[in-house]
Amino acid sequence: MSGPTEPSPHQSAQLAAQPSGRTVDPRGPRFAAWVTTAVLVAVLVTGWWPLLAAQAVVFALGAFAGPRHSPYSVLYRVLVAPRLAPTDEREDVAPLRFAQGVGFGFAVVGVLGYASGLVALGVVATAFALAAAFLNAAFGFCLGCEAYLLLNRLSIINKKVGTAR
């Protein structure tokens, strides 16, 4: 009879990727990514930073209140989801909230850049947010979600190494 063993690094990474208990239909975040992509393209084409400020508010709602409270999520639930077949596929909310927080950070930097006259900073920050939104919309690859999972795995590995000393 063997005693309890610690999980391997691979098992720890899998445990870190376990859902938080709150999940969403993954088609909702992809819809939101398409809307976000359109908004960010409009900002880059027009340079109208108040639209970027509005997008920052959308990101903040998704990050701090949760994706369910984002205006794009409401649009998806009211206008799009009723027209789609139900799905059993679910996605954990925690990585989505982190990704929205990252988007919020880039949007705030972009607004500060545009508003202070550092247009190049505004353009670059907006372009980074656009690249991430487009990757999610077009390919289902959530860059912020992947960063969340990677950071989560690294923190478990670092905690394990720290306790082994």
Automatic annotation (TrEMBL):
Residue ranges occupied by any DUF4395 domain in the UniProt entry: 24-153
Record carries keyword Membrane: yes
Sequence ranges of Polar residues compositional bias: 8-21
UniProt xrefs under Pfam families: DUF4395 (PF14340)
Biological source species: Actinokineospora iranica
Region ranges (Disordered): 1-24
Keyword Aminoacyl-tRNA synthetase found: no
Keywords: Membrane, Transmembrane, Transmembrane helix
Highest taxon, organism lineage: Bacteria
Protein name: DUF4395 domain-containing protein
Transmembrane regions: 31-64, 98-121, 127-151
UniProt cross-references to InterPro entries, sorted A to Z: DUF4395
